[in-house]
Design a protein that fits this description.
- It is built from twelve helices and 14 strands.
- The strands form four sheets. It has a seven-stranded mixed beta sheet, with helices on both faces. A three-stranded antiparallel beta sheet has the order 9-14-13. The protein has a two-stranded parallel sheet with strand order 1-12.
- The protein is globular and about 60 Å long.
- The model has no long low-confidence stretch (mean pLDDT about 95).
Length: about 400
């Protein structure tokens, strides 16, 4: 039999997608599954953005676009970065892609050679490490504790850097922990990077608008780090546009050109209609996005208090995104309702098949003592899920 490529053995299917798939299979069998595994807003895209897409169809925006996106779409990104973040870019430094995941892939492929080291604080989003592995880079994980709200310290960062370090990847607000780096925390990390000029920084800011503690802060604002920082963002989370598939990179010019070159050989440009809608999303009324955040904040308050009240769960205090990431190690090596729980994977399978609640193992995010729950669903579903957790974690 013909053999497939060796690179496939270096990566695995994301656990987030695996759990969603298992949940759908059980639902198809008629089982009432409470799905707390998927990080997708349960809101529809705001009306004014949908109307812009309809108008684009009527106006004939149905043809190929430049690989990096229409010029006025990239200008809309420049406008947004200046308005929201106080950062100055040119349209040539923006590359629009088919979702933030492709934006990340373009950047990693543009920077990492075999053997290069990439520092990733854990917990981290599942795709970071897999993309580095595809490039035959070496992932250097830095474990971050729940006591520090899962955030890396300057001392940990300095200790992880070697002459082979080429890239640092992190998100704020963070998936899976909901942690948000403050301006002071980012400035302290920036001081470390100022001493190591060979390192690029990927700042994944896709959850920027879903922030419960005030103004979003980007590490690109400090000193000359903008010349080594790549901002990853998109429309999926803040505008409830997951199915539209638009992410973007804001990067130093040469790196942006490299991303354009790589993308030209994979997908070329993203959807023309989505790009036209993106202009309205990025430059238009943010009130619908703010209304979503208000509702997420209400849900966060409920599920945070509810999980804290379940004996055995150790809960951090997330300040953004829409996830809870409790430490569940108190349940390891115990028997619950006749099922032995050895680790977080066992607990997730137990909750899926016995409690009929779908969550994701922390192993997927580099933290084997935890599980991730998404509260990007309605309150009735959340309340049902919490009651099942309470019952089956007794």
């Amino acid at each position: 039999m013909n053999q497939l490529a060796e690179r496939l053995s270096r990566i695995s299917e994301p656990q987030t997608i695996k759990m969603a798939k298992l949940g759908r299979e059980l639902k198809a069998q008629g089982i009432d599954i409470v799905d707390l595994s998927i990080g997708e807003p349960d809101f529809d895209t705001p009306v004014h953005i949908r109307e812009a897409a309809k108008q684009a169809i009527d106006e004939g925006y149905t043809h190929y676009t430049p690989v990096a996106g229409y010029a006025d779409v990239r200008q809309a990104v420049v406008y947004k970065l200046k308005r929201d973040n106080g950062l100055a870019y040119t349209p040539e430094q923006i590359v629009v892609s088919t979702g933030a995941k492709q934006s990340l892939a373009n950047v990693v492929l543009s920077i990492i050679n075999p053997g290069d080291e990439v520092i990733i604080p854990t917990p981290y989003w599942v795709t970071y490490s897999e993309q580095v592995k595809l490039c035959q880079g070496k992932v250097v994980f830095v474990p971050c504790s729940i006591e520090n709200n899962y955030k890396i310290t300057p001392e940990q960062l300095e200790a992880a850097i070697t002459p082979k370090t080429r890239l640092f990847m992190f998100s704020s607000p963070c998936n899976p922990t909901g942690s948000v780096y403050s301006k002071a925390e980012l400035e302290a990390l920036a001081a470390v990077f100022a001493r190591h000029l060979q390192i690029f920084i990927i700042s994944d800011e896709i959850y920027e608008y879903i922030n419960y503690v005030g103004k979003h802060e980007s590490i690109a604002q400090f000193g000359d780090l903008i010349n080594r920082t790549v901002i990853i963002n998109g429309l999926s989370k803040g505008f409830a546009m997951t199915g539209w598939r638009l992410g973007y990179v804001a990067a130093p010019l040469e790196l942006a050109k490299a991303c354009d070159k790589i993308q030209s050989q994979f997908t070329s440009a993203t959807c023309s209609i989505t790009q036209r809608a993106a202009i309205t999303a990025l430059t238009g009324d943010l009130a619908p996005a703010q209304e979503m955040v208000t509702e997420f904040k209400r849900r966060r308050q409920y599920i945070h208090e509810a999980l804290k009240s379940i004996p055995g769960l150790k809960v951090n205090d997330p300040e953004g995104a829409f996830y809870m990431f409790p430490d569940v190690s108190a349940f390891f090596n115990k028997t619950l309702h006749g099922t032995h729980i050895g680790n977080a994977d066992d607990l997730c399978m137990y909750l899926l098949h016995k409690a009929h609640v779908s969550v994701v193992t922390g192993v997927a995010f580099g933290q084997p003592n935890c599980i991730r729950l998404s509260y990007a669903t309605n309150m009735a579903t959340l309340e049902k899920g919490v009651e099942r957790l309470r019952e089956y974690l007794k």
